[in-house]
Design a protein that fits this description.
Helices cover about 45% and strands about 20% of the residues. The protein has six helices and six strands; from the N terminus they run E-H-E-H-E-H-E-H-E-H-E-H. The chain has helices at about 15-30, 40-50, 65-70, 90-100, 115-120, 135-150, and strands at about 5-10, 35-40, 60-65, 80-85, 105-110, 125-130. Strands 3-2-1-4-5-6 form a six-stranded parallel β-sheet, with helices on both faces. Strand 2 (about 35-40), helix 2 and strand 3 (about 60-65) form a beta-alpha-beta unit. Helix 1 packs parallel to helix 6 (about 135-150). It is globular, with a radius of gyration of 14 Å.
């Protein structure tokens, strides 16, 4: 399924593992031939730009609100969406994306409330869950398994 358009939808960057996992997943998807866009608020975009100042891992960064507006207005859509969440607002963005987009949804759920968020999700998606805040290894390993399935 290479050349598919993939959106990494990032919520509030409060939990440390989000930025490292987003950089990792973006790079892995890009190397596999996917057209990857990372959407987030200003804080997310600034963190990514500082962490990846040469644009080696993330090729395209866009404003989350503008991206959702473009999808609602049918100016843009994606084949796959990885929605990152560690709180209710992240889940709300993912639910919105699920309702307005044709993308296959993957919910990347992490942080102290991961299990509660997982149970609260009522939209169709693949759930990738790790109750981690600082150590990204478990979430990375779960994403690697998902990537194996996507790339087939």
């Amino acid at each position: 399924m290479t050349s598919a358009k993939v959106l990494l939808l990032l919520g509030c960057p409060e939990v440390p593992i989000q930025t490292s996992i987003a950089l990792y997943l973006s790079h892995k998807l890009n190397k596999s031939g996917f057209d990857v866009t990372v959407a987030g608020n200003d804080a997310v975009i600034k963190l990514l730009k500082v962490s990846d100042f040469d644009g080696y891992y993330v090729k395209k960064m866009v404003n989350l609100d503008k991206t959702l507006e473009d999808i609602i207005e049918k100016r843009l859509d994606f084949d796959i969406c990885f929605a990152f969440m560690h709180n209710d607002s992240g889940m709300t963005f993912a639910a919105t994306m699920s309702a307005i987009s044709q993308a296959k949804m993957y919910s990347v759920i992490f942080g102290r409330n991961a299990e509660a968020l997982e149970e609260a999700i009522e939209f169709d998606c693949v759930k990738i869950v790790a109750k981690d805040v600082h150590n990204p290894t478990r979430l990375k390993n779960k994403l690697d398994k998902v990537m194996e399935e996507i790339v087939k």
